[in-house]
Amino acid sequence: MGNVFVLDHPLIQHKLTHIRDVNTGTKEFRQLVDEVAGLMAFEITRDLPLEEIQVKTPVAEATLKVIAGKKLGLVPILRAGLGMVDGIIKMIPAAKIGHVGLYRDPETLKPVEYYVKLPTDVEERDFIVIDPMLATGGSASAAITSIKNRGAKNIKLMCLVAAPEGVEVLQKDHPDVDIYLAALDEKLDDHGYIVPGLGDAGDRLFGTK
């Protein structure tokens, strides 16, 4: 599907199955989301540029590779996106973290921005926007628009599960944004939940209803 990448690594798929399970409690759910986010970080950073430097090992001088000074930024969409940040930061500890807060207007059902805080050097960073669920696509699209309006030029989206409807909205609104998923699910139900999905990611992460 063009710019959509479903990460089918066995470890990701195994852990995602347990994330989906209704019998998985808050503590285990949180840990599994953390682990899957870290595994997804390997794939989403696969194209980072490398450069060679000289290093003296205990045995010899060697020409070896390091990441070529790429500045990365993580932007979780509040609140559920917070549950994936720690797993990614373990892999990319130098990344800076911004936040975007949105709520859904009960009249228009459109996302309304209430909080945005990004690193000061927005134009110099590649950003990964993070949200466990890509359902209707409204929140993710609005968050990406907000980041672009502040100067970001290279953005990727990372989600655990997505519905085709949300992917379609993202591809229409932001065709330049690559989408990384652990699973592309069947559809949205009449209440806007992803089927089979995993329920409400925020409630399951934070133990709320």
From TrEMBL:
<feature type="domain" description="Phosphoribosyltransferase">
    <location>
        <begin position="6"/>
        <end position="208"/>
    </location>
</feature>
<dbReference type="InterPro" id="IPR005765">
    <property type="entry name" value="UPRT"/>
</dbReference>
<keyword id="KW-0547">Nucleotide-binding</keyword>
<protein>
    <recommendedName>
        <fullName>Uracil phosphoribosyltransferase</fullName>
        <ecNumber>2.4.2.9</ecNumber>
    </recommendedName>
</protein>
<feature type="binding site">
    <location>
        <position position="79"/>
    </location>
    <ligand>
        <name>5-phospho-alpha-D-ribose 1-diphosphate</name>
    </ligand>
</feature>
<dbReference type="GO" id="GO:0004845">
    <property type="term" value="F:uracil phosphoribosyltransferase activity"/>
</dbReference>
<dbReference type="InterPro" id="IPR029057">
    <property type="entry name" value="PRTase-like"/>
</dbReference>
<dbReference type="InterPro" id="IPR050054">
    <property type="entry name" value="UPRTase/APRTase"/>
</dbReference>
<dbReference type="GO" id="GO:0000287">
    <property type="term" value="F:magnesium ion binding"/>
</dbReference>
<dbReference type="GO" id="GO:0044206">
    <property type="term" value="P:UMP salvage"/>
</dbReference>
<feature type="binding site">
    <location>
        <begin position="199"/>
        <end position="201"/>
    </location>
    <ligand>
        <name>uracil</name>
    </ligand>
</feature>
<comment type="function">
    <text>Catalyzes the conversion of uracil and 5-phospho-alpha-D-ribose 1-diphosphate (PRPP) to UMP and diphosphate.</text>
</comment>
<comment type="similarity">
    <text>Belongs to the UPRTase family.</text>
</comment>
<dbReference type="Pfam" id="PF14681">
    <property type="entry name" value="UPRTase"/>
</dbReference>
<dbReference type="GO" id="GO:0005737">
    <property type="term" value="C:cytoplasm"/>
</dbReference>
<keyword id="KW-0328">Glycosyltransferase</keyword>
<feature type="binding site">
    <location>
        <begin position="131"/>
        <end position="139"/>
    </location>
    <ligand>
        <name>5-phospho-alpha-D-ribose 1-diphosphate</name>
    </ligand>
</feature>
<feature type="binding site">
    <location>
        <position position="194"/>
    </location>
    <ligand>
        <name>uracil</name>
    </ligand>
</feature>
<keyword id="KW-0021">Allosteric enzyme</keyword>
<keyword id="KW-0460">Magnesium</keyword>
<keyword id="KW-0342">GTP-binding</keyword>
<comment type="pathway">
    <text>Pyrimidine metabolism; UMP biosynthesis via salvage pathway; UMP from uracil: step 1/1.</text>
</comment>
<dbReference type="GO" id="GO:0005525">
    <property type="term" value="F:GTP binding"/>
</dbReference>
<dbReference type="GO" id="GO:0006223">
    <property type="term" value="P:uracil salvage"/>
</dbReference>
<dbReference type="InterPro" id="IPR034332">
    <property type="entry name" value="Upp_B"/>
</dbReference>
<keyword id="KW-0808">Transferase</keyword>
<feature type="binding site">
    <location>
        <position position="104"/>
    </location>
    <ligand>
        <name>5-phospho-alpha-D-ribose 1-diphosphate</name>
    </ligand>
</feature>
<dbReference type="InterPro" id="IPR000836">
    <property type="entry name" value="PRTase_dom"/>
</dbReference>
<feature type="binding site">
    <location>
        <position position="200"/>
    </location>
    <ligand>
        <name>5-phospho-alpha-D-ribose 1-diphosphate</name>
    </ligand>
</feature>
